[in-house]
């Protein structure tokens, strides 16, 4: 798109807007609650705790197995709640942002 120092005319800008649309990036939808929850299970800490729980179960120590399983459950729930809150806060922050650009239209700088 060749443009000189005078920028586009208002008419040219309207034509390009109609042809190409707004100059925005597509937004990714926020992850679903299920996706956030399952992502918590992909943590290295959870893998270690799962391995420890399986080993203790094979060794016949049911009480330790229950304690480790409970730790996995608590870790997963806390991680899920924190990430969900963070995603909601990010969504609210995005609503407050109003991006602006300075452009040259008909030889004049406009916002």
TrEMBL record:
Coiled-coil residue windows: none
Domain of life, per lineage: Bacteria
InterPro entries documented for this protein: ATPase_P-typ_cation-transptr_N, ATPase_P-typ_TM_dom_sf
Keyword Transmembrane helix: yes
Stretches that traverse the bilayer: 36-59
Keyword terms, alphabetized: Membrane, Transmembrane, Transmembrane helix
Keyword Membrane: yes
Pfam families in the record: Cation_ATPase_N
Cation-transporting P-type ATPase N-terminal domain: residues covered: 1-61
Identification of the protein by name: ATPase, P-type (Transporting), HAD superfamily, subfamily IC
């Amino acid at each position: 798109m060749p443009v000189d120092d005078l920028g586009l005319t208002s008419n040219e800008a309207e034509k390009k807007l109609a042809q190409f649309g707004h100059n925005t990036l597509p937004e990714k939808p926020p992850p679903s609650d299920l996706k956030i929850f399952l992502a918590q299970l992909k943590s290295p800490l959870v893998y270690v705790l799962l391995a420890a729980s399986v080993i203790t179960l094979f060794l016949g120590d049911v009480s330790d197995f229950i304690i480790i399983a409970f730790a996995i459950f608590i870790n997963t729930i806390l991680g899920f709640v924190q990430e969900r809150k963070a995603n909601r806060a990010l969504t609210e922050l995005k609503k407050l942002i109003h991006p602006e650009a300075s452009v040259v239209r008909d030889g004049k700088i406009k916002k």
